[in-house]
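Thread: sanity check for a docking pose with flavin mononucleotide

Original post by kr_44:
Hi all, I'm comparing my docking run against an independent structure prediction. Below are the sequence and the ligand SMILES. Could someone generate the full complex and paste the C-alpha coordinates? I mainly care about where the ligand ends up relative to the chain.
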Amino acid sequence: MSNNSKNIVLGICAGIAAYRMYDLINELKKLNHNVTVVLTHDAKNFVNELTLKVLSSNNVYSDMFDPKAQSKPMHIELADKADIVLVAPATADFVAKAAGGICDELLTSILIATKAKVYVAPAMNVNMWNHFTTQKNVETLVTKLGYTMIPPEDGDLACGYSGIGHIASNEKILNVILHKDSEAGLLSGKKVLITAGGTREQIDPVRYIGNKSSGKMGIAIADVAYDMGAEVVLVTTTPCDRPYQVIEVEAAQEMQEVVEAEFDNSDALIMAAAVSDFRPMVVSKQKIKKKNEDVTIELTRNPDILEIIGRIKKDHQIVIGFSAESENLEKNAKEKLVKKKIDMIIANDITNKDIGFSSDNNSVILLTKDGGKETLPRQPKVQIARYICNKLAEMFNNIKETRKV
Ligand SMILES: Cc1cc2nc3c(=O)[nH]c(=O)nc-3n(C[C@H](O)[C@H](O)[C@H](O)COP(=O)(O)O)c2cc1C
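Reply from moderator J.T.:
Ran it for you. Here is the predicted complex with flavin mononucleotide included:
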Protein backbone atom coordinates (compact mmCIF):
# COMPACT_ATOMS: atom_id res chain seq x y z
CA MET A 1 0.00 0.00 0.00
CA SER A 2 1.27 3.49 -0.85
CA ASN A 3 1.43 6.19 1.82
CA ASN A 4 -1.84 7.72 0.69
CA SER A 5 -3.83 4.52 0.58
CA LYS A 6 -6.23 3.88 3.40
CA ASN A 7 -7.76 0.86 5.01
CA ILE A 8 -11.45 1.44 4.54
CA VAL A 9 -14.00 -0.71 6.30
CA LEU A 10 -17.20 -0.38 4.28
CA GLY A 11 -20.32 -1.32 6.23
CA ILE A 12 -23.28 -2.09 3.99
CA CYS A 13 -26.79 -2.18 5.47
CA ALA A 14 -30.05 -3.67 4.16
CA GLY A 15 -31.31 -1.00 1.80
CA ILE A 16 -31.93 -0.83 -1.93
CA ALA A 17 -28.98 1.55 -2.37
CA ALA A 18 -26.61 -1.26 -1.33
CA TYR A 19 -26.03 -2.18 -5.00
CA ARG A 20 -24.36 1.20 -5.53
CA MET A 21 -21.48 0.03 -3.37
CA TYR A 22 -20.28 -2.20 -6.22
CA ASP A 23 -19.25 0.94 -8.12
CA LEU A 24 -17.96 2.72 -5.02
CA ILE A 25 -15.65 -0.20 -4.21
CA ASN A 26 -14.36 -0.05 -7.79
CA GLU A 27 -13.65 3.66 -7.49
CA LEU A 28 -11.86 3.21 -4.15
CA LYS A 29 -9.77 0.37 -5.55
CA LYS A 30 -8.79 2.48 -8.55
CA LEU A 31 -7.53 5.09 -6.08
CA ASN A 32 -5.42 2.40 -4.45
CA HIS A 33 -7.40 2.04 -1.23
CA ASN A 34 -7.88 -1.25 0.57
CA VAL A 35 -11.57 -1.93 1.07
CA THR A 36 -12.95 -4.52 3.47
CA VAL A 37 -16.67 -5.03 3.27
CA VAL A 38 -18.78 -5.80 6.34
CA LEU A 39 -22.41 -6.70 5.66
CA THR A 40 -25.21 -6.57 8.16
CA HIS A 41 -27.08 -9.85 8.35
CA ASP A 42 -30.06 -8.39 6.45
CA ALA A 43 -27.87 -6.72 3.81
CA LYS A 44 -27.17 -10.16 2.37
CA ASN A 45 -30.67 -9.93 0.84
CA PHE A 46 -29.57 -6.96 -1.26
CA VAL A 47 -26.01 -7.63 -2.46
CA ASN A 48 -23.99 -10.64 -3.49
CA GLU A 49 -21.11 -11.62 -1.22
CA LEU A 50 -19.06 -13.23 -3.97
CA THR A 51 -19.32 -10.13 -6.17
CA LEU A 52 -18.20 -7.93 -3.25
CA LYS A 53 -15.33 -10.29 -2.49
CA VAL A 54 -14.08 -10.19 -6.09
CA LEU A 55 -14.53 -6.42 -6.43
CA SER A 56 -12.76 -5.63 -3.15
CA SER A 57 -10.14 -8.42 -3.47
CA ASN A 58 -10.79 -9.10 0.20
CA ASN A 59 -12.90 -11.43 2.28
CA VAL A 60 -16.37 -10.14 3.06
CA TYR A 61 -17.40 -10.29 6.71
CA SER A 62 -20.75 -10.43 8.45
CA ASP A 63 -20.52 -13.12 11.10
CA MET A 64 -19.47 -12.16 14.63
CA PHE A 65 -18.91 -15.75 15.60
CA ASP A 66 -16.98 -17.15 12.64
CA PRO A 67 -15.10 -20.25 13.94
CA LYS A 68 -12.44 -19.68 11.23
CA ALA A 69 -11.64 -16.24 12.64
CA GLN A 70 -8.16 -15.53 14.11
CA SER A 71 -7.63 -15.49 17.86
CA LYS A 72 -8.48 -11.77 17.99
CA PRO A 73 -12.26 -11.24 17.79
CA MET A 74 -13.23 -10.15 14.29
CA HIS A 75 -14.93 -6.90 15.37
CA ILE A 76 -11.76 -5.79 17.19
CA GLU A 77 -9.49 -6.89 14.34
CA LEU A 78 -11.49 -4.88 11.81
CA ALA A 79 -12.02 -1.92 14.16
CA ASP A 80 -8.27 -1.65 14.79
CA LYS A 81 -7.32 -2.10 11.15
CA ALA A 82 -9.57 0.67 9.84
CA ASP A 83 -8.31 4.15 8.99
CA ILE A 84 -11.83 5.00 7.93
CA VAL A 85 -15.17 3.33 8.61
CA LEU A 86 -17.84 4.17 6.05
CA VAL A 87 -21.39 2.93 6.49
CA ALA A 88 -23.28 3.19 3.21
CA PRO A 89 -26.13 2.83 2.78
CA ALA A 90 -26.99 3.29 6.45
CA THR A 91 -30.54 2.19 7.28
CA ALA A 92 -32.83 3.83 9.83
CA ASP A 93 -32.30 0.68 11.88
CA PHE A 94 -28.52 1.01 11.77
CA VAL A 95 -28.60 4.72 12.68
CA ALA A 96 -30.80 3.89 15.68
CA LYS A 97 -28.52 1.07 16.82
CA ALA A 98 -25.37 3.14 16.43
CA ALA A 99 -26.90 6.05 18.37
CA GLY A 100 -27.91 3.67 21.14
CA GLY A 101 -24.59 1.86 21.32
CA ILE A 102 -26.15 -1.48 20.42
CA CYS A 103 -23.64 -4.15 19.41
CA ASP A 104 -25.89 -6.93 18.17
CA GLU A 105 -23.85 -7.84 15.11
CA LEU A 106 -20.43 -7.43 13.53
CA LEU A 107 -20.92 -3.97 11.97
CA THR A 108 -22.49 -2.34 15.04
CA SER A 109 -19.75 -3.85 17.25
CA ILE A 110 -17.00 -2.50 14.99
CA LEU A 111 -18.52 0.96 15.35
CA ILE A 112 -18.24 0.88 19.12
CA ALA A 113 -14.74 -0.57 19.10
CA THR A 114 -13.09 1.59 16.46
CA LYS A 115 -11.06 4.73 17.03
CA ALA A 116 -11.13 5.48 13.29
CA LYS A 117 -13.03 8.34 11.70
CA VAL A 118 -16.61 7.24 10.93
CA TYR A 119 -18.69 8.41 7.97
CA VAL A 120 -22.36 7.56 7.58
CA ALA A 121 -24.35 7.87 4.34
CA PRO A 122 -28.00 7.16 5.15
CA ALA A 123 -30.62 6.17 2.58
CA MET A 124 -34.26 5.47 3.30
CA ASN A 125 -37.87 6.37 2.65
CA VAL A 126 -38.56 10.10 3.20
CA ASN A 127 -40.92 9.45 6.14
CA MET A 128 -38.37 7.21 7.79
CA TRP A 129 -35.74 9.94 7.37
CA ASN A 130 -38.00 12.69 8.72
CA HIS A 131 -39.17 10.58 11.67
CA PHE A 132 -38.42 12.19 15.03
CA THR A 133 -36.36 9.25 16.28
CA THR A 134 -34.24 9.05 13.11
CA GLN A 135 -33.51 12.77 13.29
CA LYS A 136 -32.69 12.52 17.00
CA ASN A 137 -30.41 9.56 16.32
CA VAL A 138 -28.64 11.35 13.47
CA GLU A 139 -28.07 14.30 15.79
CA THR A 140 -26.55 11.98 18.40
CA LEU A 141 -24.20 10.46 15.83
CA VAL A 142 -23.01 13.89 14.73
CA THR A 143 -22.91 15.88 17.95
CA LYS A 144 -22.15 13.22 20.54
CA LEU A 145 -20.07 10.72 18.59
CA GLY A 146 -18.41 12.97 16.02
CA TYR A 147 -19.45 10.92 13.01
CA THR A 148 -19.54 12.76 9.73
CA MET A 149 -22.92 12.53 8.04
CA ILE A 150 -23.07 12.41 4.27
CA PRO A 151 -26.72 13.42 4.13
CA PRO A 152 -29.29 11.81 1.85
CA GLU A 153 -30.51 13.88 -1.05
CA ASP A 154 -33.85 14.97 -2.43
CA GLY A 155 -35.18 12.92 -5.31
CA ASP A 156 -37.37 10.06 -6.51
CA LEU A 157 -37.00 7.13 -4.13
CA ALA A 158 -37.08 3.42 -4.97
CA CYS A 159 -40.11 3.00 -2.69
CA GLY A 160 -42.18 5.23 -4.99
CA TYR A 161 -42.02 8.32 -2.79
CA SER A 162 -40.32 11.60 -3.65
CA GLY A 163 -38.31 13.56 -1.08
CA ILE A 164 -35.17 13.38 1.03
CA GLY A 165 -33.82 9.87 1.42
CA HIS A 166 -31.83 9.17 -1.71
CA ILE A 167 -28.26 8.12 -0.91
CA ALA A 168 -25.62 10.77 -1.75
CA SER A 169 -23.84 10.19 -5.04
CA ASN A 170 -20.72 8.02 -5.01
CA GLU A 171 -18.76 11.08 -6.14
CA LYS A 172 -19.98 13.04 -3.10
CA ILE A 173 -19.17 10.13 -0.75
CA LEU A 174 -15.66 9.84 -2.19
CA ASN A 175 -15.07 13.57 -1.89
CA VAL A 176 -16.11 13.61 1.74
CA ILE A 177 -14.25 10.53 2.96
CA LEU A 178 -11.07 11.26 1.03
CA HIS A 179 -11.13 14.99 1.77
CA LYS A 180 -10.86 15.83 -1.86
CA ASP A 181 -12.13 19.29 -1.07
CA SER A 182 -9.68 22.16 -1.03
CA GLU A 183 -9.70 22.35 2.78
CA ALA A 184 -7.92 19.05 3.37
CA GLY A 185 -4.66 19.49 5.21
CA LEU A 186 -5.04 23.27 5.58
CA LEU A 187 -4.29 23.00 9.30
CA SER A 188 -1.88 20.08 9.22
CA GLY A 189 1.17 20.55 11.41
CA LYS A 190 -0.74 22.94 13.68
CA LYS A 191 -1.81 22.22 17.24
CA VAL A 192 -5.15 23.86 17.90
CA LEU A 193 -6.58 24.14 21.39
CA ILE A 194 -10.36 24.60 21.53
CA THR A 195 -12.71 25.10 24.45
CA ALA A 196 -16.41 24.24 24.45
CA GLY A 197 -19.47 24.28 26.70
CA GLY A 198 -20.58 26.30 29.68
CA THR A 199 -18.66 26.13 32.93
CA ARG A 200 -20.38 25.00 36.12
CA GLU A 201 -19.50 26.81 39.33
CA GLN A 202 -20.20 24.74 42.40
CA ILE A 203 -22.47 26.19 45.12
CA ASP A 204 -22.73 23.04 47.22
CA PRO A 205 -22.38 19.28 46.48
CA VAL A 206 -25.56 19.27 44.33
CA ARG A 207 -26.02 22.80 43.00
CA TYR A 208 -24.07 24.94 40.62
CA ILE A 209 -24.25 28.20 38.66
CA GLY A 210 -24.28 27.36 34.98
CA ASN A 211 -25.26 28.80 31.65
CA LYS A 212 -27.14 27.70 28.55
CA SER A 213 -24.14 26.86 26.37
CA SER A 214 -24.52 23.42 24.77
CA GLY A 215 -20.93 23.11 23.57
CA LYS A 216 -22.12 22.52 20.00
CA MET A 217 -20.19 25.43 18.46
CA GLY A 218 -16.86 24.55 20.09
CA ILE A 219 -17.21 20.85 19.31
CA ALA A 220 -18.10 21.65 15.67
CA ILE A 221 -14.94 23.77 15.40
CA ALA A 222 -12.85 20.98 16.92
CA ASP A 223 -14.31 18.44 14.48
CA VAL A 224 -13.63 20.66 11.46
CA ALA A 225 -10.11 21.56 12.62
CA TYR A 226 -9.40 17.85 13.03
CA ASP A 227 -10.79 17.11 9.56
CA MET A 228 -8.54 19.85 8.20
CA GLY A 229 -5.50 18.06 9.61
CA ALA A 230 -4.88 19.90 12.91
CA GLU A 231 -3.75 18.18 16.08
CA VAL A 232 -6.75 19.04 18.20
CA VAL A 233 -7.07 19.31 21.96
CA LEU A 234 -10.64 19.97 23.07
CA VAL A 235 -11.21 21.25 26.60
CA THR A 236 -14.92 20.82 27.23
CA THR A 237 -17.61 20.77 29.86
CA THR A 238 -19.85 18.78 27.47
CA PRO A 239 -18.65 15.17 27.35
CA CYS A 240 -18.09 13.72 23.89
CA ASP A 241 -16.19 10.81 22.37
CA ARG A 242 -13.80 11.86 19.60
CA PRO A 243 -10.73 10.53 17.77
CA TYR A 244 -8.72 13.53 19.07
CA GLN A 245 -7.73 14.48 22.63
CA VAL A 246 -10.70 15.52 24.78
CA ILE A 247 -10.14 16.92 28.28
CA GLU A 248 -13.27 17.23 30.39
CA VAL A 249 -13.48 20.04 32.93
CA GLU A 250 -16.23 21.60 34.97
CA ALA A 251 -15.43 24.98 36.47
CA ALA A 252 -13.74 28.08 35.05
CA GLN A 253 -10.65 27.73 37.23
CA GLU A 254 -10.21 24.13 36.09
CA MET A 255 -10.56 25.23 32.46
CA GLN A 256 -8.03 28.01 33.04
CA GLU A 257 -5.45 25.57 34.45
CA VAL A 258 -5.80 23.17 31.51
CA VAL A 259 -5.81 25.93 28.88
CA GLU A 260 -2.72 27.61 30.36
CA ALA A 261 -0.86 24.29 30.50
CA GLU A 262 -1.80 23.30 26.93
CA PHE A 263 -1.41 26.73 25.33
CA ASP A 264 2.36 26.89 25.67
CA ASN A 265 2.95 24.36 22.88
CA SER A 266 -0.18 25.17 20.86
CA ASP A 267 -0.29 27.23 17.69
CA ALA A 268 -3.78 28.55 18.30
CA LEU A 269 -6.49 28.82 20.91
CA ILE A 270 -10.17 29.13 20.03
CA MET A 271 -12.17 29.94 23.16
CA ALA A 272 -15.71 28.92 22.27
CA ALA A 273 -16.61 27.96 25.85
CA ALA A 274 -19.02 30.13 27.82
CA VAL A 275 -16.94 30.74 30.93
CA SER A 276 -18.81 31.96 33.94
CA ASP A 277 -17.64 35.43 34.99
CA PHE A 278 -18.38 34.65 38.64
CA ARG A 279 -18.28 31.77 41.10
CA PRO A 280 -19.52 31.45 44.67
CA MET A 281 -17.01 32.89 47.10
CA VAL A 282 -17.49 29.88 49.35
CA VAL A 283 -18.48 26.37 48.25
CA SER A 284 -20.60 24.76 50.93
CA LYS A 285 -19.35 21.28 51.87
CA GLN A 286 -22.90 20.21 52.75
CA LYS A 287 -26.09 20.69 50.76
CA ILE A 288 -27.53 24.07 51.76
CA LYS A 289 -30.71 23.36 53.73
CA LYS A 290 -34.08 24.84 52.83
CA LYS A 291 -35.08 27.42 55.44
CA ASN A 292 -37.88 29.90 55.72
CA GLU A 293 -35.59 32.74 54.78
CA ASP A 294 -33.76 33.92 51.68
CA VAL A 295 -30.25 32.73 51.00
CA THR A 296 -27.58 35.11 49.75
CA ILE A 297 -24.68 33.68 47.80
CA GLU A 298 -21.70 35.98 47.53
CA LEU A 299 -19.97 35.78 44.17
CA THR A 300 -16.36 36.46 43.30
CA ARG A 301 -14.77 37.13 39.88
CA ASN A 302 -13.49 34.20 37.88
CA PRO A 303 -10.21 34.49 35.99
CA ASP A 304 -10.63 35.91 32.47
CA ILE A 305 -8.95 33.11 30.51
CA LEU A 306 -8.81 35.05 27.22
CA GLU A 307 -7.23 38.04 28.88
CA ILE A 308 -4.59 35.89 30.59
CA ILE A 309 -3.77 34.11 27.32
CA GLY A 310 -3.82 37.42 25.38
CA ARG A 311 -1.07 38.65 27.73
CA ILE A 312 1.22 35.62 27.37
CA LYS A 313 0.65 34.78 23.71
CA LYS A 314 3.69 34.83 21.45
CA ASP A 315 3.78 36.32 17.93
CA HIS A 316 3.36 32.98 16.16
CA GLN A 317 0.30 32.04 18.24
CA ILE A 318 -3.24 32.96 17.23
CA VAL A 319 -5.99 33.53 19.76
CA ILE A 320 -9.66 33.67 18.81
CA GLY A 321 -12.44 34.46 21.26
CA PHE A 322 -16.22 34.44 21.27
CA SER A 323 -18.42 37.22 22.53
CA ALA A 324 -22.01 36.32 23.41
CA GLU A 325 -23.88 39.61 23.69
CA SER A 326 -27.44 40.60 24.44
CA GLU A 327 -26.96 44.27 23.46
CA ASN A 328 -24.53 46.50 21.52
CA LEU A 329 -23.14 43.39 19.84
CA GLU A 330 -20.44 44.92 17.69
CA LYS A 331 -19.35 47.67 20.06
CA ASN A 332 -18.95 45.31 23.03
CA ALA A 333 -17.17 42.69 20.94
CA LYS A 334 -14.74 45.29 19.55
CA GLU A 335 -13.89 46.46 23.07
CA LYS A 336 -13.17 42.87 24.13
CA LEU A 337 -10.96 42.29 21.08
CA VAL A 338 -8.77 45.27 21.99
CA LYS A 339 -8.80 44.79 25.78
CA LYS A 340 -7.90 41.10 25.57
CA LYS A 341 -5.22 41.66 22.89
CA ILE A 342 -6.48 38.77 20.78
CA ASP A 343 -6.47 38.25 17.01
CA MET A 344 -10.14 37.73 16.26
CA ILE A 345 -13.44 37.82 18.08
CA ILE A 346 -16.63 36.10 16.97
CA ALA A 347 -19.71 37.91 18.20
CA ASN A 348 -23.21 36.52 18.37
CA ASP A 349 -26.53 37.87 19.57
CA ILE A 350 -27.85 35.54 22.27
CA THR A 351 -31.26 37.20 22.41
CA ASN A 352 -32.14 35.67 19.02
CA LYS A 353 -33.83 32.32 19.83
CA ASP A 354 -33.15 30.85 16.35
CA ILE A 355 -29.41 30.92 16.86
CA GLY A 356 -26.76 30.58 19.53
CA PHE A 357 -27.13 28.48 22.70
CA SER A 358 -28.37 24.92 22.08
CA SER A 359 -29.41 25.70 18.51
CA ASP A 360 -27.78 23.89 15.58
CA ASN A 361 -27.58 27.23 13.79
CA ASN A 362 -25.73 30.42 14.44
CA SER A 363 -25.22 33.84 12.91
CA VAL A 364 -22.05 35.71 13.81
CA ILE A 365 -19.89 38.73 13.15
CA LEU A 366 -16.15 38.16 12.83
CA LEU A 367 -13.97 41.08 13.89
CA THR A 368 -10.21 40.96 13.45
CA LYS A 369 -7.53 43.03 15.19
CA ASP A 370 -6.57 44.70 11.89
CA GLY A 371 -10.08 46.16 11.61
CA GLY A 372 -11.62 43.46 9.40
CA LYS A 373 -15.32 42.69 9.72
CA GLU A 374 -17.35 39.86 8.20
CA THR A 375 -20.98 38.97 8.86
CA LEU A 376 -22.05 35.36 8.50
CA PRO A 377 -25.84 35.03 8.15
CA ARG A 378 -27.83 32.27 9.93
CA GLN A 379 -26.46 28.85 8.95
CA PRO A 380 -25.57 25.49 10.56
CA LYS A 381 -22.86 25.70 13.22
CA VAL A 382 -20.76 23.23 11.23
CA GLN A 383 -20.64 25.69 8.34
CA ILE A 384 -19.68 28.54 10.68
CA ALA A 385 -16.99 26.23 12.11
CA ARG A 386 -15.68 25.63 8.55
CA TYR A 387 -15.48 29.36 7.95
CA ILE A 388 -13.63 29.98 11.22
CA CYS A 389 -11.11 27.19 10.54
CA ASN A 390 -10.47 28.50 7.02
CA LYS A 391 -9.96 31.95 8.52
CA LEU A 392 -7.51 30.46 11.03
CA ALA A 393 -5.57 28.81 8.18
CA GLU A 394 -5.47 32.18 6.41
CA MET A 395 -4.14 33.85 9.59
CA PHE A 396 -1.36 31.24 9.87
CA ASN A 397 -0.42 31.98 6.25
CA ASN A 398 -0.31 35.71 6.95
CA ILE A 399 2.10 35.11 9.84
CA LYS A 400 4.31 33.03 7.51
CA GLU A 401 4.24 35.75 4.83
CA THR A 402 5.07 38.51 7.35
CA ARG A 403 8.02 36.50 8.63
CA LYS A 404 9.37 36.15 5.08
CA VAL A 405 9.40 39.92 4.54
C1 LIG B 1 -37.16 -3.96 -0.35
C2 LIG B 1 -36.71 -3.29 0.92
C3 LIG B 1 -36.01 -2.14 0.85
C4 LIG B 1 -35.60 -1.50 2.02
N1 LIG B 1 -34.89 -0.33 1.92
C5 LIG B 1 -34.53 0.31 3.04
C6 LIG B 1 -33.79 1.54 2.96
O1 LIG B 1 -33.46 2.03 1.89
N2 LIG B 1 -33.48 2.14 4.12
C7 LIG B 1 -33.81 1.65 5.34
O2 LIG B 1 -33.52 2.28 6.33
N3 LIG B 1 -34.48 0.46 5.44
C8 LIG B 1 -34.85 -0.21 4.33
N4 LIG B 1 -35.52 -1.39 4.43
C9 LIG B 1 -35.77 -1.96 5.76
C10 LIG B 1 -34.51 -2.65 6.28
O3 LIG B 1 -34.07 -3.63 5.35
C11 LIG B 1 -34.76 -3.31 7.63
O4 LIG B 1 -35.04 -2.32 8.59
C12 LIG B 1 -33.59 -4.12 8.06
O5 LIG B 1 -33.90 -4.86 9.23
C13 LIG B 1 -32.36 -3.26 8.33
O6 LIG B 1 -31.27 -4.09 8.64
P1 LIG B 1 -29.84 -3.55 8.96
O7 LIG B 1 -29.98 -2.17 9.52
O8 LIG B 1 -29.30 -4.51 9.96
O9 LIG B 1 -29.05 -3.59 7.70
C14 LIG B 1 -35.93 -2.06 3.27
C15 LIG B 1 -36.64 -3.26 3.32
C16 LIG B 1 -37.03 -3.86 2.16
C17 LIG B 1 -37.81 -5.16 2.26
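Residues 13-17, 40, 42-43, 91-94, 123-124, 128 surround flavin mononucleotide (CB under 6 Å). Hope that helps with the comparison, let us know if your pose agrees.
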